Amino acid sequence: MDIEEATQKLRGWFSGRLPEDWFEGQPEIILDREEIAVIGRLPAPSFADDVSEVERSAALEGGVQRFREETRERRIEIALEAERRFRRKVSWGVEVGDETVMFTTLSVPVMTRLRQSERRVLDTLVAAGVARSRSDALAWCVRLVGRHTDSWLADLRDALRHVDQVRAAGPDLDS
Q1: pTM
Q2: Can you name the residues that pair with 29 across neighbouring β-strands?
Q3: Closest by Cα among 98, 78, 100, 101 to 90
Q4: Phi then psi for 10, rounded to 5 degrees?
């Protein structure tokens, strides 16, 4: 099963399993080798025109916290079912306004080999106090690249989905 088909299956399963009143519309399902992230949109609270940005931000934060606490037991129950069924950990998050808040996520070790010039970049970030370790520095670099190349990465993911579709339509080489 390719990643697009697996994501569709997950989206369907979670759509059937999640309470209808939790999110506005269908939650976003993000899948990789280790983790299923379920991110749903919460309704933004309505405010008077003269509400300060501080009050607005605090209200959004409070709403996210309320949702997190009120749904905790059901989210755990649903996650355990999904983890048994799909053999991946489930993490949860919400979108409210233009902000995404993740409640839980996996932190998975990734092995890499770096040449001296690349290690020097990481060591510079550590020496400057940007990161506590080479591992933190590498994670910081990945987040930075991800933020500044979102559209390029989205195009690349779309191209990979197309490759998966073409492969799936090709001849079966196992027979």
Answers
A1: 0.71
A2: 38
A3: 78
A4: -65, -45
